[in-house]
């Protein structure tokens, strides 16, 4: 036995074991390092303040609203956690849950990639990259988005179950156990979709990761394999849709107008190619609503397309038409699968939180393309490819950290501070008239803005202004009931119409203070 303990076999086993789980531990910690600073800050974003109040004062409302949009599990999770959160300190806890989910997602992705034949370094780098993309930044920095991390984990878990029941040639296997695995995978996909519809198709990310690692002499084998998996995905999504429609039919929830299906699919496809796909191709660079995107946005789109085009050429020389056809099948097919929920929905709102699966699919192809190009130069290519991908992950981590502060936390802290200044002017013994001059999105103090996510202004509507001022008043006078008459709008009324003015259009002014008039 002493000789066995020192044997090369045992040494290789223990070294591999500790290397794998050491890598997994580092991947779990990475999102905490990147997003930890924003988790610790006390801020809310847009809907956060209303949901905090509704969870406390209107039990069941959050579930009804989310259920009306086909997300009952999202509503159930959000209502219970926000009720426990209570205040801004609690919102930090919700963001911590999101970061926890992203860390677990990185570990799960790494283990699945290794199980499907990815080498150690590319698998670790891709698993590290996915929690850093813009879609992940939204999940990590917007408190109410934390259930999306659970939905992504459920989708990845569905693949982990289903892969054991479908052979590499696309044949069913496993007998009764295989059928149970398929049922479990479909149920996990349904649960993921009932949390957030756009997260269920994250399954496609792992399908892409498998297809790019296998070499096929005949296109029929990967096509059959892909068809089997997409069928399971379709069953899961379909089951979620049936559950949603039944909940509407029995009166459990009232369907939202946002549940309408798209009627002009060709027009939607053109919109997808021009307005959505470039955001996924840009990988770690983000778009801008008010101006031209940052300097790296379109170059990154070009780099991604260039890498994939070169990869197709290299694959054509190495594996012939079958290899190129497999990649094209995966590229086109899985792009549609990854965004299928949003393509079928009548709404056209290309937010990054709906792009997670799509961006993940193209990230897989980009990483696999760089690896394959490196293999074309056997002597130094793999090391160069690893260095390029490591540099991309490092830059993405720095960007994710910086954007979390500059485009999420700090702008929201400025809005909160203006409201706190207004609430500080309240006198409990009086009933002043308060007017909040709502901001325009162009008043954002952030250096960049995209829709209602990155750099967005929260107080651009009356209902957000009302919720945030009420929150600030409760925070300022926790033990006293403060009365005031509130109004808000985009146009400044006459001076006699208010006693306290909170001008949210001063966000860009560092020394801004609310205007107080004589009572």
Automatic annotation (TrEMBL):
Spans traversing the lipid bilayer: 93-113, 125-144, 150-168, 180-212, 232-253, 295-314, 326-346, 352-371, 383-401
Entry keywords, A to Z: Membrane, Transmembrane, Transmembrane helix
Record bears the keyword Cell cycle: no
Name recorded for this polypeptide: Glycosyltransferase RgtA/B/C/D-like domain-containing protein
Organism expressing this protein natively: Myxococcus fulvus
Classification of source organism: Bacteria, Pseudomonadati, Myxococcota, Myxococcia, Myxococcales
């Amino acid at each position: 036995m002493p000789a066995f303990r020192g044997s090369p076999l045992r040494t290789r086993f223990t070294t591999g074991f500790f290397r794998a789980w050491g890598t997994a531990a580092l991947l779990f910690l990475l999102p905490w390092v990147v997003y930890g600073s924003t988790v610790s800050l006390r801020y809310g974003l847009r809907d956060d303040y209303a949901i905090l109040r509704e969870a406390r004062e209107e039990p069941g409302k959050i579930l009804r609203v989310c259920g009306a949009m086909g997300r009952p599990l999202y509503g159930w999770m959000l209502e219970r956690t926000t009720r426990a959160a209570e205040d801004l300190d609690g919102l930090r806890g919700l963001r911590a849950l999101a970061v926890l989910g992203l860390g677990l997602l990185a570990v799960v992705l790494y283990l699945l990639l290794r199980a499907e034949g990815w080498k150690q370094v590319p698998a670790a780098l891709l698993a590290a990259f996915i929690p850093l993309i813009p879609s992940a930044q939204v999940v990590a920095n917007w408190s109410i988005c934390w259930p999306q991390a659970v939905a992504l984990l459920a989708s990845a878990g569905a693949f982990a179950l289903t892969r054991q029941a479908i052979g590499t040639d696309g044949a069913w296997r496993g007998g009764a156990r295989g059928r149970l695995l398929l049922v479990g995978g479909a149920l996990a996909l349904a649960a993921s979709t009932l949390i957030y519809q756009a997260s269920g198709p994250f399954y496609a990310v792992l399908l892409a990761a498998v297809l790019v690692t296998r070499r096929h002499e005949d296109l029929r084998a990967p096509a059959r394999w892909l068809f089997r998996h997409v069928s399971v995905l379709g069953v899961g999504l379909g089951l979620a849709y049936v559950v949603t429609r039944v909940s509407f039919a029995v009166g459990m929830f009232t369907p939202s107008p946002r549940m309408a299906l798209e009627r002009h699919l060709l027009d939607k496809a053109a919109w997808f190619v021009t307005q959505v796909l470039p955001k996924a191709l840009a990988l770690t660079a983000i778009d801008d609503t008010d101006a031209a995107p940052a300097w790296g946005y379109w170059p990154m789109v070009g780099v991604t397309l260039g890498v994939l085009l070169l990869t197709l050429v290299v694959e054509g020389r190495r594996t012939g038409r079958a290899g190129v056809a497999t990649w094209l099948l995966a590229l086109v097919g899985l792009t549609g699968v990854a965004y299928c929920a949003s393509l079928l929905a009548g709404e056209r709102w290309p937010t990054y939180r709906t792009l997670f699966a799509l961006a993940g699919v193209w990230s897989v192809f980009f990483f696999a393309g760089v690896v394959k190009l490196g293999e074309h130069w056997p002597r130094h290519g793999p090391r160069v490819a690893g260095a390029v991908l490591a540099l991309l992950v490092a830059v993405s981590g720095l960007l994710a950290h910086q954007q979390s502060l500059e485009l999420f936390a700090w702008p929201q802290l400025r809005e909160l501070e203006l409201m706190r200044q207004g609430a500080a002017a309240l006198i409990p013994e009086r009933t002043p008239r308060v007017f909040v001059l709502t901001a325009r999105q162009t008043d954002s103090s952030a250096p960049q803005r995209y829709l209602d996510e990155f750099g967005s202004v929260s107080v651009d509507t009356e209902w957000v202004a009302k919720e945030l001022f009420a929150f600030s008043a409760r925070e300022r006078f926790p033990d006293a009931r403060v009365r005031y008459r509130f109004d808000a709008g985009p146009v400044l009324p006459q001076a006699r119409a208010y006693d306290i003015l909170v001008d949210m259009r001063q966000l860009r002014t560092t020394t801004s203070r609310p205007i107080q008039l004589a009572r």
